[in-house]
Amino acid sequence: DTKQDIQAQPNQAEPTVRNREIPPVQDQEDELDNQKRHLNVVFIGHVDAGKSTTGGQILFLSGQVDERTIQKYEKEAKDKSRESWYMAYIMDTNEEERVKGKTVEVGRAHFETESTRFTILDAPGHKSYVPNMISGASQADVGVLVISARKGEFETGYERGGQTREHVQLAKTLGVTKLLVVVNKMDDPTVNWAKERYDEIESKMIPFLKQSGYNVKKDVMFLPISGLIGANLQTRVDKSICSWWDGPCLFEALDAVEVPLRDPKGPFRMPILDKFKDMGTVVMGKVEFGSVREGDSLLVMPNKDQVKVVAVFIDENRVRRAGPGENLRIRLSGVEEEDILSGFVLSCVANPVPAVTEFVAQLQILELLDNAIFTAGYKAVLHIHSVVEECEIVELLQQIDPKTKKPMKKKVLFVKNGAVVVCRVQVSNTICVEKFSDFPQLGRFTLRTEGKTVAVGKVTGV
Fold this sequence. Notes:
Blueprint: E1 37-44, H1 51-61, H2 67-79, H3 95-100, E2 107-112, E3 116-122, H4 130-137, E4 142-148, H5 153-158, H6 163-173, E5 178-184, H7 195-211, H8 216-219, E6 220-224, H9 250-256, E7 269-277, E8 281-286, E9 292-293, E10 297-301, E11 305-314, E12 317-319, E13 321-322, E14 327-333, E15 345-348, E16 355-365, E17 374-375, E18 379-384, E19 387-400, E20 414-415, E21 420-432, E22 444-449, E23 452-461
Parallel strand pairs: 1-3, 1-4, 4-5, 5-6
Antiparallel strand pairs: 2-3, 7-8, 7-15, 8-14, 9-13, 10-11, 10-15, 11-12, 11-14, 16-21, 16-23, 17-20, 18-19, 18-22, 19-21, 22-23
């Protein structure tokens, strides 16, 4: 179920605006220049690495959750004999998640530092919930890869079949360009803040991150933390605990992340993640390009429904306009809620997003299922921005030589693991995609088969 329940932060009322006065519009015309920048951060990593606990601790430290709520969670976790899970309850709000200690939905929360507003997306680590993790990561600018330093736990996550590897590859494909690798559970008795263990994990991860396409010097940063006790999150870890670390704490590292600027004047694009009825039709999503303001006329693609923007909300605040990178709820008139599906794209009328049933793409084959051959007729599930759709490879056009990056001369009938190939992809329903070179966020995708990511790719022609 890819529907994401937007979960209220624990110390606030339900974040819908039903049955309440619509809050007055905040006039942000003049403020847009000096507003804090906004970043989406996705927490990824193997199940039980401590993603939800770290996310919960961040919210507590930044004052989003009060002491009383924490005490309530502490008691609840104790009653379930899960004492060390209480911080995770801040992010994992549904009962199933708490009982199993596994995140299923993508939890969402907000916090701020001196210079930046952050939206945290707490993605599930468990392999059965990878599609949810994909929808979380596709909205993110920065990834926090949480790795457990505890003896045996890093190894399980990192070995073949562990989620650490798959998550790194997915994050890269989904456009998470910057990665903070936090080595968690450094306070564990098996680790005890040992530099040797930290260095060992770093030295094993670096080659793999390089292989996944990350520029380790420029785009990746490692740091040691303990999510459970909150060490090295908001303030630097004390030298008495960890004498060898003189780098930043997590908040400082997040503040220092530079992300590419997006063009607020470009053609408007917002893939729709979810929709609901509330005094009209409300859609949710992240603005990838352009800006939107109240009163705009837009198109819901691929159905070409003409709609008018009635109201725009960032978190709880109604605003007149919003730019790229913002997570919005937009109330529309001119379309019924049942006529919109996740994966549709709100786009400007003058330059709408292309709607296609077939496109040309460059694919990198990661790891096919045993005995599978990648050839014309190959079927898989395509994940591109908020779309999940069945697809078929209809023709392999050419294979790319990985060394020269140029097409090979010989005709290609099938390819194996590790190959890079240009092919035509057909989908069962019309979907909205863009060429990667024009709009990277709407042009990169993954192919999955039987719950496993088999290839990553980018759209080269529509």
